[in-house]
Structures
1.
Amino acid sequence: MPAMLAARRSGNPTPVPTPRRLAAALLLGAAAGCGVTADPAPVLNAVMPSSGYNDTPLNLAMMGSNFRPSYRVDARTGNATLDPGGFHVWLTPISPNDGPAIELGNVVWQSVNLLAGQLPADAREGPYDVTVTDPRGRSWTKKRAFQSLGADGTGPVVRIVSPPSNTAFAVGALVPIVVTADDGVGTVTGLTAVMSSGSGALQPYTCPVTGDSTVNCSFKLPAPGAAGTPDELTIIVTATDAAGNIGDARAQFDLVRAPAFNSMSPTAGGTQGGTQVYIEGAGLSQRNVPVDVRFDGLPATIVGQGPNSLQVSTPEHVMPATVPVTITIAGVTVRKDAAFTYVAPPIVRNIVPTSGPVTGGFPVTVVGDNFVPQTTQIYFGDAPLRCPRYSSANRIDGIAPPGMGTLAVIADDSVSGSVATQTVPFPYYVQDAGWSPLDGGLDAGLDAGWSAGGGPDAALNGTGCPGAP
């Protein structure tokens, strides 16, 4: 650089800097401070963690600003390479009687705001000032930035977060387990869990650890045990820290037998739900453990419960279908595919004629949907349609029973049930004295050899109806 200034004073042309000359100039400038802007001194704001035990080496992070690294420059090529190890960090005890200053090992530059280093083991207990020195020799000291706690004599605090207390599991159920271990400012080095039952069966699991002070671990283990014997399920979790201290936790739960699903009756019902279904099996009522029964994934209502049987009311289903049925007890689900058939219930939409005399005995045609032979019945109030004859899924003919006032006509099926809101009103009236041909009611009409256009001319149910043999 003096040569360049002399060249300018003499009026000679300034030489073009080659990479080698530029590198040399940078090195000389850095050494002499000539023409190079001075970087601000480093500032240390905090050390993390700010305290720790001294049983093992401890990784520390120095946070601050103006952590500017040095560079290695190749004078021949001019290439500059970052030197991340040009910083030094010292811990100086507050009391001189606590020993000499301790230099951190493996100090590495991370960014202009972060340095990393390792405090050797056996740092004497007490507070320390922390000093950071950059590659240019400039320093910054943070008073009482670190506290050595001495030897770690306390084990990690272990918690079994899940399952919650008062939970029961069936043999073979996958038990979801969540555990934590917290060693404060120490380091968790191991975390294991063992699940066992009274039968002696064990299920161990080792959680991964990463050298942190806390560990959170989630996993699932199958509940061990004899399939048909109620038992106790025990979970024991053990954690170890870097000093060899141990902490543990344990929890116990009811262990019940896995359910069995043998049969059910009836196997069909209406889409509107409410069909009473009886289920036979085993292990269906144990220690007040909740039972969940589902038809095609929809929850049924438990009406009655015994050790080997259930009575449930079916849920509503949006459309006719044959669906699976599942029973879940204490984490174990048993399933039967194509176990129950939902059938659309019959619905009355119209009646011809739309009214009739109180004596009954006249032919009617009931029009609707989902009529089924042998199982669908038509009712005028509480009185069944007489001499019913199934014509199609949309039509049933028969003889109207006697009635008074206006009665609701409804279709009911022994399999699919009925829909109480789907009725058609039928008003009865008192006929004139000279009314015929069924004067005297149904019996008189039948004796007269009843026949009418559109009405039944043959009966399917019983005798005594028109056309019956």
2.
Amino acid sequence: MEAIELLRQNLKVGEPISNAYDKVSKLVKERNSDLHVHTNLGFGIGYQFKNENLMINATNNISVKPGMAFHARIAFTGVHSDPTRGSIAIGDTFLVQ
């Protein structure tokens, strides 16, 4: 839950989307270096459910604007010693004010 809250707090108006991804990725690595964060942490929601231009990832430099809505989905791998059973995800949807 801390990672989702950190993501929400860092999707700030005027900041690139990639900044939020970087903060969450850094938090996960600091807390547990065995966990791996998926390459994207969600996406913007617009006219279509999944706006491909607003992916929350390390390379998206689009600036966050007021009124943007995001579906955050943070998936971790490496949570179990058996690689076929080693993932978990948590998600939330929120509006940037």
